[in-house]
Structures are given as C-alpha cells and as structure tokens.
Amino acid sequence: MKFIALLFLLISFIIDADSWLQPEPMAALSANASILVRVEPGVLPNRDASNQPHFATASFFRWDNQASYQPYQQLSLQNKVSPLFIYVSNQGELITLDNWYNSGHGDVVVLYKADGSVLQSFGLSAFYSRQQLEKLLRSVSSIQWRCFEKSPYLLQRDFYLPIRPAGVVKINLDDASVSLIDEDQSC
C-alpha cells in the first residue's frame, strides 16, 4: 500500500498539470487612446445548450473626441476560447497572443488588419527550429514559450515579443515579416 502511495506521489511530480481559471473579458487601449478593443471569451462545446463552439469575439471602439468611444467593428477571433493577451495599434490592428487552456499550441500569434481580416497567423514553428521546440518546457496542456519576465510591446509599426529561452521576436505590422533580435539576452 505504501508503494502505491509513493508511486502516485512520484507521478504527480512528473506530470506537470495546468490549472486554468475561466477566461474573463479583457480590453486593450491603443497607445494614443484612439482605439479600444474588448474581447469576450468564447464557449467550448458541451458548455452551453447548443453544444457548439462559440469563438472569442472582439469589439472595436473609436474615440469620437466628444467624451466617448463609439463601436465600429466586431469580429470573431481565431481563438476558440480566448487569447491570453491582446494588443491594439493606433491604426486599429489587433494582435492576439496564445490560446486559453492550451498555451503554445495552434496559432500562438495572430495579426488582424484594421479592417478585421487576418494578415498572418503564426505557430511556434515560425519562431523556433524543430530542435529548439523540443527543448521547451511542457505541461499537460501548454508549451512554455514566452518570456514572462519581459513584456511584449508595440513600437511604431513593429510588435516585440520576448520568447524563451532568450531573444525577442520582432513582427512588422505592415507585412508580417518576422525577425529574431536580441538573441543574447537572458529570459
């Protein structure tokens, strides 16, 4: 009996399980405060009466220079449940990072044009070689690829995304070109 208890204890240390709270609505404001985006989480199948997935939605609001934001666009995101983080440019482009309940899987970065269409989506293979991907830490549901010690940011027409083990990915918002910079910085 003690052997079985010890075995379960060892397995619990080996399996690195995730614990996710329910997603909540989130919002992002552009640097000049002219654009506000609010994301409502989607619903997974079996979580509502229709048993159909409802993807996350983004509502866009523009400052009207008269003390309020006016809605101008709503779109369904590629995230089944919700992105983990969102960023919006002064021109209204939206960047979503990761996927709720399974970070590091699928499209981990999606760039939406100001009209709501997808400019480009990226999986981890856009940022890592096969050998680098195999070295990333994993849990039951997630791949630990982002550097949480440093925050992503928008600067003019580029989005800077710190990644593990060390480096920053620069993504251009005009053509979705990707380059790795600051490879020698630690995470």
Short description:
The chain is mainly beta and 187 residues long. It is 10% helix and 34% strand.
Keywords:
mainly beta; four-stranded antiparallel beta sheet; 2 helices
Description:
This protein has 187 residues and is mainly beta. The chain is built from 2 helices and 14 strands; from the N terminus they run αββββββββαββββββ. Strands 1-2-3-4 form a 4-stranded antiparallel β-sheet, with no helix packed on it. It has a 4-stranded antiparallel β-sheet with strand order 5-6-7-8, with no helix packed on it. The protein has a 4-stranded antiparallel β-sheet with strand order 11-12-13-14, with no helix packed on it. Strand 13 and strand 14 form a beta hairpin. The longest helix has 13 residues. It starts with a helix and ends in a 6-residue tail after the last strand. About 6% of the residues have low confidence.
